[in-house]
Amino acid sequence: MSSNRFIHALYDDDDTLLKAVKNIRSQKYEIDEVYTPFPVHGLDKALGIEETRIAIMAFIYGCIGLIVAFIMMDFIMIKDWPQNIGGKPSFSFLENMPSFVPVMFEMTVFFAAHLMVITFYLRSKLWPFKKAENPNPLTTDDKFLIEIELNDNEKGLTTLLKKSGAVEVSIIEKSE
Amino acid sequence: MEKQMMYIFPKKIKSLSVYLMVAGFFGLVYGFLSAPKNIEESKAIIATSHGDHHGGEHNAHTSGLHGASPNIKNATNYSGGDMHVSSNTEIKNAEIHSEDHDNEHDEHVYHQLANKPWAALYVSAFYFFMISLGVLAFYGIQRAAQAGWSPVLFRVMESITGYLLPGGLIVIVILFLSGLHLNHLFIWMDPEVVAHDKLIAGKVGYLNTPFFLARAIFFLSGWSLYRFFSRKFSLAQDKASDISNHKKNFRISAAFLVFFIVTESIMSWDWIMSIDPHWFSTLFGWYVFASMVVSGVTAIALITIYLKSRGYLEFVNDSHIHDLAKFMFGFSIFWTYLWFSQFMLIWFSNIPEEVTYFISRIEDYNLPFFGMLVMNFIFPLLVLINSDYKRKNYFVVMAGIVILLGHYIDIFNMIMPSAVGDKWFIGVPEIGGFLFFLGLFVFIVFKELTKAPLLTTGDPYVQESKNFHY
Fold it and tell me: Where would you tag: which of A2, A134, B237, B244 has the fewest CB atoms within 10 A of its CB?
């Protein structure tokens, strides 16, 4: 059964935060979430988060873009309205291929970039007019926050967090 | 302070490099001995080697890159195979061809065959020299940028640039011998050719042998001076108590990079592009630079991985290898970008005097020309695109060997078509030249490695570099 009580520890330095995260995890506590004002190098590893698979998706999206460019250029320049390209009216896709390379390159980059951003938003459950989940506005300024779910470990956790260098430890009850 | 380990040149590598040099030397000697000494010998070689497919090959070189008189008309007919087929019997049919043309043609073939061993020597000499020059530029960039990740690799880079002066001198000696008309690599050096060629005659103010050699000596002295002082400051910094040597190195590196990019560009026009004096490409300097820097970074990576596998360079971690592999990957794509930029503009505009360059390469050099694209672009792209693979020595070595061979073929494609036309072959003299300079390169580089501790202990960034992690 999960409780709706959480402990929030606020840190003012990313190195302290990293050490605290490692410390807390070595004590077998489960960290629910960490909020930071900027990406902290090595935090994902310290938290034991699975490595992102977005790189593989980027490669696949790039390949899709390349194929779309192939089909698109073949349709536009060869099939639908055959063009005399560079004074070489061969009307063959392969023979005119060098002039399509810039388009293929751009489409590869375009598809990889845009689909990656869209994938990232979907996976992070971000969409327009979404209400911020951020529990403390200070984490958009210069503070770092660790959120841990409370069961019956309140005392031990509070001392552990204070010892690990937290500038403020508070207990929050979430309504839903 | 840990004790500094000095590198000991292993006997095995030493004897291997000597064997390579000896084997390569004999390959080159064989090449020179088997090259025709006069037109009669050349005719005999052609007659015995051609056999029944005589006609086809014969045609190719009438339209090949004939230095003295580029047959633009023939070249544009190149793809129209039937035009050639109709004259396939020309050798037997004296009435089609005038006596004059045959003589001219025989002389041309003779020059191509006589050039072959020289071109084989020159391609390899330039290739290995280019690797050390590429490393010198990369090293200069690290110094001028005050890079924090690379100081642990400085001694490897300094050892590779140890080949710069001997390798460069060999190239200049070959250029000098060309100036003495011992070969026909640079047809503009022949006053007889210039007299009948308006285009080359117009370039004589720049393309003349004394000025050409003076430029070559000036460039090599400039690069060698930088290398000498940078190495000196780097060694002095290890013993110094302040960082004044480091600062001096920073300053001369910045100055060197300015000098380098101008002289490298002119060097590429002089030493490679002028082999084909009618053709020009405005990004040729960059193209050669991309080739040299990617080969250079690859050489650094391979030597570093080798030394690490022998228990040296314990301070180099897989993040350093990762960064080198990133540069190999990035510069491979940079090279492809320049290759394509050069190719597409010329292919698209289809101007006869420009497009002959690619026609001769696509017709006569089809396999090396497109093969190098696979080796220098597609293979490294697919092997090194994954971040994890860049940290695995196995992948980096595999990609590295293919990249190094691919860029040898790149230089081969730049020089051979204009020097020997369709008479190319990667045979005994070419492989001999490659092995000879490989042996010399390995010998000098590893010898240089033994001369200084493998870590630049005095470098102010050395601790940052040791701690470097991804």
Answer: A2
